Amino acid sequence: MLLILEEVLVTYEVEIEELRKIADRLDEEIFEKITKRVEAAVRISVIKRRHGQFDVDACLEEFYDQIKELAMRTCLDAEGVKRIFREIMNLYIEAEREARNEDCF
Question: What is the pLDDT at residue 5?
Fold first, then answer.
């Protein structure tokens, strides 16, 4: 009986460890993608401002509609996904503010 329990625990730990490694790699990828997304958004805003084509509210609403549409294709809650992207856009807004002050991007 003890041997069976030890075997179950070892299998459990091995399975969990592999999944944790996958989750950690995904976290790193998500971070990299968010960073690239924010950088691209800042560059887009610089170009739009240069050409006088910047309507933040209209752009954001269109963006959130696209995100909700993408979320509805999955089993994820569309409003929850929209909140996540709203936070990503907040990162963009803050980065844009800093970029205007420091010429970052």
Answer: 56
